[in-house]
Amino acid sequence: MKLCTKKAVEEARERNLQLPEEKNGLILTLTNTDGKKYGGMSNKPLEEFKEFVEIASRADANVLEIGAAYGTPYLMETFKKESMGHYTACELVGDQLRILATRIEELDPSKLSNLTLVEGPFPRKEVVDHLQEGGYDAILALHVFQFLTEEEVVEAFKQVHRLLKPGGKLFAKVMTPYNGITRPEVLQKRAEEVQNYLVHKTRPLPGFVKNALARSHIKDSVTDDLLKALGITTDLHVFQFDRDVMKAFLESENFLIEICEYSPLNFPPFALDGREHLTIVLQKPN
């Protein structure tokens, strides 16, 4: 559902909602209505996807961020620009949007009119119905699609294609199974699933993990205390992305692939060999 930006600011102040303190390099996310936590938001300066900010900074631009949290560095950098277009922030947890709105109001009250807030789980109907078909010059999704089911991953990319303008771009980053904490036997099974998909191109896409915290999935060296420090305290499913699978799938979805490559995560123990993240930049054909 859509939230009124001014009312979101009022509600945040009435309830004294504050941006949480940064811990271990992350600002931990709030508990969702389903009782689950989904890790945290990095508040580090921009390192990549600067093209997204360049697009968003055009006066005639219309952009969407899926999983905007409390206001990612990309969102905050855009709102600091003298010129900018319209920015829709979609987020699962409504109180995070309320905190985001207060940050923008404190930065520049006049720019609240450049902000639309949409609360709910992308890509479900109750969210996408509030978004503009063929309306966005760029979409940003940082560490969002990894919390979806296989069916939702497929639907998410279909919706991205529907929502982008011709020539519009998606900028995304997701987690892979090659993250330094997954058991070797699990990785071997995944490799077999990947090869089977690449040969037969039949769904389901390999990558879904029913419970990311299951001890049958995680190395014994990764302690519960470490997971708690990272904000991962509840059982939750995840989808782990393989580069070759995604290249084949995205081509079948009629995207032009600019980037679909592994990138490193320098955050022990989530570090292995430089394949911990998958960085994706796609364009909808004109």
UniProtKB/TrEMBL annotation:
Signal peptide positions on this chain: none
SUPFAM superfamilies attached to this UniProt entry: S-adenosyl-L-methionine-dependent methyltransferases
The protein's name in its UniProt record: Methyltransferase type 12 domain-containing protein
Occurrences of domain Methyltransferase type (ranges): 64-170
Species of provenance: Plectus sambesii
